[in-house]
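Translate sequence into structure tokens.
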Amino acid sequence: MTTLDVEVDPVAVGLDPERLSRIAPHFDAHVKQGHLAGWLSAIGRDGQVAWIGQGGRRHEANDLPVEADTIWRIYSMTKPVTSLAAMMLFEEGRFDLNDEVATWLPEFARPEVYVEGSVEDPVTRPASGPIRVWHLLTHTAGLTYGFQRCHPVDEIYRRRGFDFGPPKGLDLAGAVQQFATMPLVFDPGAAWNYSVATDVVGRLVEAWGEMPLDEFFSKRIFEPLGMTDTGFCCPEASLGRLAELYVYAGGDAYRPGGAMSVAATRPPAMFSGGGGLVSTAHDYHRFATMLLQGGALGDVRLVAPSTIALMSTNLLPGGADLETLAQDSFSEVTMSGIGFGLGLSCVIDQARNRMPTSEGTVSWGGAASTTFWVDPSEDLTVVFFTQLLPSSTYAIRRELQRLVYQAIVD
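Result follows.
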């Protein structure tokens, strides 16, 4: 266990303490209004932690406060980790981004696209081209999520047992085989749709790295970066530090997550590269700082700066933003002025985004309202944790962005 601590006077790195003091009352008000049980956030600048704030309870029924070492379900903030793992293997020559996924996963050799019809008997046609690795990393493969409820194929996923998670007992290889048998929402590369694509990337990491995904993460990323509390479940010895999961119940109310809460307390059958990790502020801050510093943290280098630059570049067709290409898809970030690289969203048009976040900023969030971003122009990292499903309940992320940037004075 390692706790995140403030490492530098905020004044020394251009942050106004009086303006920073606006952040905690804002999120404490969310707690008082019954929106959140608890929260924690940390701001880093120039690679050093300059501010930490926290409030509320990590577990209301047990009256346990949020603490610096609280463990959180980060859900889709797993995706940047999986994408980084893939790009580490890219650097080792294991694949090219233009390679066909079927080279390693033959179940994807003949993808079909939904045309019309019922979910019981859909009419499909052959896809216009193969699914390539870059399609998976950019969510342009035509795969989907059952929970989105935007397209008939979403319901097909749900009928197969893929709603918020996989069917009970199914492992990663089995899940990926199931994904390959369901129709695509569109031709690969034609649009953007939030999806199980990063789970497929996780399966590819297993094939390229020749080890299970949890083992690759531990040996190649978590241990080198000192991410001692990050993994696919919370160890028994640390269960007292695990935050309870809450689900929005309408109005100003939420309820405990029940079985969804318990899932993080035991090893999963499926190592979900798209949403399976738990982590801490200390650990994810280190991951974000590694991204800020071009793939290195201290003496540890995971990838080259050019690889981080590629991951942070908008690779959507025609340089479009998510608003143009998303076709009603859910997203863990706003869509206007936001592009997508390899596992990371990126700000490509600050004016269209209508936020102070710099162009070139990369980010992503998780289903329980967690988020992070890395702004190279401001030498800034921000992490935020709470445990409220779904992440679309309140505009927490944009609120946090406004509060952080108004505190930057140099």
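Note: Residues 85-209 form a domain with the Beta-lactamase fold (CATH 3.40.710.10).
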